Amino acid sequence: MRIARFSVDGSVAFGVVEGSDGFDGAGAPRGEVTLDLIKGHPFAEFERSGRRLPLDKVRLLPPVLPNKVVAIGRNYAEHAAELGHPLSSPPEVPVTFFKPSTSVIGPGDPIAYPSFSDDLHHEAELAVVIGRLCREVPLDRARDVILGYTCANDVTARDVQRRENQWARAKGFDTSCPLGPWVETGLDPERIAEGIAIQCTVNGDQRQLGRTTDMVRSIPELIAHITEAMTLLPGDVVLTGTPAGVGPLHDGDEVAVTIEGIGTLANKVIKRG
């Protein structure tokens, strides 16, 4: 099931996406797509209302509004290597950092190029959406706390990341965390473990192409590690790392993240006003 969050006529609601059969190069679904509005919210049992709206008549929003986004660095060895870290020496423990809720934007929203950077990069990532309050989650229960998955772009001011010891400004500035287009609840964790494709294009040209089998640590390992230290809330998001191929973004670029079994998240880079 694909659950989208959207606005229409000044109201915000959730709906089940019906009819999507792929995406065009700009990230727009092909074919007739509708949203069946749901009664309630996706973090508890809900009913479909039967009221359907065409997708092109609503504005898609970030699929969730996380209390926090917990991100993982250097979880793809070849990406770590392209940034100068030894391919044969992954981190002893997952590298974790935060992106604030104010960094989150949705599909189609502009990425504002920060005024304090001259080297903005894309990072396509599989995002895990947490479905229930949880802490100290054992490995064999990690799947129980997942609502579903969505696409993410861990937009990074690379020059700022290199010169500052903490990554808060480099990765936490406003608009640095596009999420969407919806939460896919039916993606089989076994399929992720066996490998799904993660792709990033800029102006239609492929920049990144990797598979989840390239992760250094699995999603259950990441959730167990994070929840040793902190409580995750419904709607919180875990970013699982990016494949190799990260590169620069410029004013006017169209960047799209496509993940097999989920969809496409597309955003345009603009000058910060």
Automatic annotation (TrEMBL):
Matching InterPro entries: Fumarylacetoacetase-like_C, Fumarylacetoacetase_C_sf, Rv2993c-like_N
All residue ranges annotated as the Fumarylacetoacetase-like C-terminal domain in the record: 68-269
Pfam families in the cross-refs: FAA_hydrolase, Rv2993c-like_N
Keyword Metal-binding listed: yes
Domain Rv2993c-like N-terminal: from-to ranges: 1-63
Keywords: Hydrolase, Metal-binding
An example Gene Ontology molecular-function term: hydrolase activity
Record carries keyword S-adenosyl-L-methionine: no
SUPFAM superfamilies documented for this protein: FAH (SSF56529)
PANTHER family: ACYLPYRUVASE, ACYLPYRUVASE FAHD1, MITOCHONDRIAL
Protein name as catalogued: Fumarylacetoacetate hydrolase family protein
Protein species of origin: Streptomyces synnematoformans
Species lineage: Bacteria, Bacillati, Actinomycetota, Actinomycetes, Kitasatosporales
